[in-house]
Predict the structure of Glycosyltransferase.
Amino acid sequence: MDAPHVVLLPFPAQGHIKPMLMLAQLLCHGAGGFNITFVNTEHNHRRLLNLIDQTAFSRRFPTLQFMSIPDGLSPEHPRTGPSLVDLFFSTSSVSKPEFRNLIVSLSQEPTCIIADGIMSFAIDVADELGIPVITFRTYSATCTWIYFHLQKLIRDGEIPVVEGNGDMDKHISCISGLENILRRRDLPNICRLEPDNPILQFYITQASKMARASALILNTFQELETPIISHLQSIFPTVYTIGPLHLHTLIDSPSKNSSSLIQIDESCIKWLDSRHPKSVLYVSFGSVIVLSHDQLLEFWYGLVNSGKPFLWAIRPDLVVDNEPNKIPDELKLATKERGCIVSWAPQEDVLSHQAIGGFLTHSGWNSTLESITFGVPMICWPMIVDQLVNSRCVSEIWKVGFDMKDTCDRSTVEKLVRDLMEDKREEIMESTVKNARLAHDSILEGGSSHGNIKKLVQDIISIHS
Ligand code: UDX
């Protein structure tokens, strides 16, 4: 009998493709020995295959094949910033029938489909074709749990959250497990939309479709989010917490680029090698959010005025109204002295480098988890979706950083950088070290994530036989 065949469908963005491809690698190479079909959109398929060393990759993962479907957007579409949401609607309409056609054309019938929660149209396709489907939410358990309360938040009048109405710090009481934690300002930013807004409605539909999947996979670890994971078990009979995925040794190392859609610039590692231990602040805002030129300058002045060395990943499309000629000479000069700027960094290698002492992050889930596992405390400047929740957990639950949500001025940046790197470092280091240890323990033999991966593999084998 053939090995089980698993089809994986990520949402077409870097922060989703990376954990999904790491899971694919685990199932293919180590834990499962399964046949894997990894379905990207055509746009990302091209980007990924341009950067990957295809020969080395297929030698390492011989039973993993990449396939692609259209995403329904024009090649020139930016697919970042506010226009990222266009992908929600275009994938549900255009990619859905294409995905169905692809599934029925496969030479080996899939044992199961693992689809990103945002690509919940895959659940309709799987149901129609009688194929078991597991949903993989690439966010934290906490944010996933909140998404199941959107209708309740509307009924309770908590949505829309109105920015600047003075009540932003009021606690939300209708989400079990988060009563004394979450304030209005910490809800995902879609909660700032009117209840009938199509984007908010998309998230509501997505949550109800996800609940039809046979199980939920999360890239988190039991010890980090225990109470919320128990709550999620009231919706999903099985929740596999299998993270932090990037720690599993069977996965391709980040510097081999296998999941990067953007060319990595390794030169910053040499620069880091020349720095004192724990002296450098790493700054990155992930792959999709965008800044205005004014925001860029506020961050830049804050960093320079803090006097700390910094390494900053500035994507070519990070700044919407980019005006390179309008960068003041004083900033350029100070950066030359104690800064390093690259367009895209080997982030995991950076975070695990001995010179790194802190991370100024947009609080994307992958960045948050990577920072936790490498024991690097954070300053969080969240902007969209789950980032607002992650930053609250970082500061209030896990106590591994500070949340500067909703403010972006040079003096706040300067103060928080000093707090993180010096003045208030002691407050958070104990917890930072403890969480890093728990993360590493979870993937060792006998650890919670290690056990859940074994269980996931076993469950897929039993569907197959
Ligand atoms: C998106 C959303 O913005 C985020 O909120 C959600 O949790 C996941 O999807 P993204 O903005 O890309 O993700 O952020 P993040 O989740 O942090 O993922 C970025 C990934 O890119 C990380 O794994 C990080 O290691 C990698 N990265 C980032 C690099 O390799 N180099 C860089 O310079 C910056």
Observations:
- The pocket of uridine-5'-diphosphate-xylopyranose is lined by residues 13-16, 18, 138-139, 260, 284, 286-288, 313, 344-345, 347-348, 364-367, 370, 385-387 (CB under 6 Å).
- The CA atoms of residues 20 and 416 lie 33 Å apart.
